[in-house]
Amino acid sequence: MSVEVKIPAVGESISSGVVSVWHKKSGDFVDAGDALFTLETDKVSTEIAAETSGVLETLVPQGQEVKIGEVVATIDDSKKAPASGPTEKKKSEPKVAIAATKDKKADTDALSPAVRRIVEEEGLDPSKISGTGPDGRITKGDALAAAQNRASDEKVKTESAAAGPSVPQQSADGRVVRKKMSPLRRKISAQLVMAQHTAAILTTFNECDMSAVQKLRADSQDIFTKKHGIKLGFMSFFIKASVEALKAVPAINGRIEGDDVIENNFYDIGVAVGTERGLVVPIVRDADKKSFADLEREIGDFATRAREGKLKFEDLTGGTFTVSNGGVYGSLVSTPILNFPQSGILGMHKIMPRPIAIDGKVEIRPMMYLALSYDHRLIDGKEAVTFLIKIKECIEDPKKLSLDF
Q1: How confident is the model at residue 109 (pLDDT cuts 50, 70, 90)?
Q2: What backbone torsions phi and psi does residue 298 show, to the nearest 5 degrees?
Q3: Nearest CA to 3 among 61, 46, 50, 60?
Q4: Per residue in 295-332, pLDDT tens?
Q5: pTM, full prediction
Q6: Per-residue pLDDT tens over the stretch 229-252
Q7: Active site residue 349
Q8: Secondary structure class of 114 (helix, strand, coil)
Q9: Residue 377 to residue 184: CA distance in whole angstroms
Q10: Residue in 153, 380, 397, 404 annotated catalytic
Q11: Which residues, in sequence order, are CB contacts of 169 under 8 Å at separation 6+?
Q12: Residue 107 annotated as catalytic
């Protein structure tokens, strides 16, 4: 019996995906649990496994976009795994080959000379041609029609493969390349445009002196690494500082839903991660309850799985606030766009030595510009400035954070 392989539901808002790669080919015997193909959606890439053992027959090409619930392959579970003994295989092959040769010769001998010539030149299989002549004999017209249909099918397959999202189309002069947007990039585009069209986005800036955090990090790095097996980074400090600032300004931890204002009493912080496929924002759940080591471990795990395309749908859903570090790419200052429907996003930037006034004297300090983009429908400028000042205070005096190293 053939068992259908359907595209599973991988999230409430996901309606389609792309079969980015087949791990098994048509005719392969697969065991239950084997990875059949990778489904790339607008949020995550997921490996779809076989639910039963049998012989696989793929129905869609690699690179094709498919809908949730669509049948993309079948598995014939009535067929068993091939025998592993090489001697038995060698013995059976000549018999099959001889039988096939006899059948093919018998089919060819029954054809008229004109039909036989077309069949041999076009490489057609007479057993697959429906004859319209007396007693079902294959006529010259039948052979020509079969040859034409095969050529049309091959052309359709070629054009379909060329139109796949993974195959760029280059212009004749080589100056332009056209290719399909990936589902993830389409989702990012739609999300950003929605945020711009829905929220009244405003950005407020401040700066912070990174001297204290840099010194604390340098002094604690060896002990922290030996104790936890991971390095102490800057992101955990900013997540901790963001939680303190959100507690001070609860409106930024909320959102607008219709005519209602939703205030969240939990702190699920999104951390923007750049990958080759695009930007994803996995969520650190209950960040207020996690230690520095927990945060660094979770952030590192998210970054690794994001680059490998192994994030799960639940890793990316929800979130009350987002932190984005453009400084890792060298950005000095920027205006981040809201991760809608959230009401705030903190932008971190490159640490740059700059001259600043300290007690009436000019000193060179490692400075970072901070940017808070927020929904002005819900948050006023006073609240935005209060939030950034709280971040600045926590970073410039890390003792205000819970330093559970």
Answers
A1: low
A2: -70, -40
A3: 50
A4: 999 999 999 988 887 888 788 888 999 999 999 999 99
A5: 0.66
A6: 999 999 999 999 999 999 999 999
A7: no
A8: helix
A9: 28
A10: 380
A11: 162, 177, 178, 179
A12: no
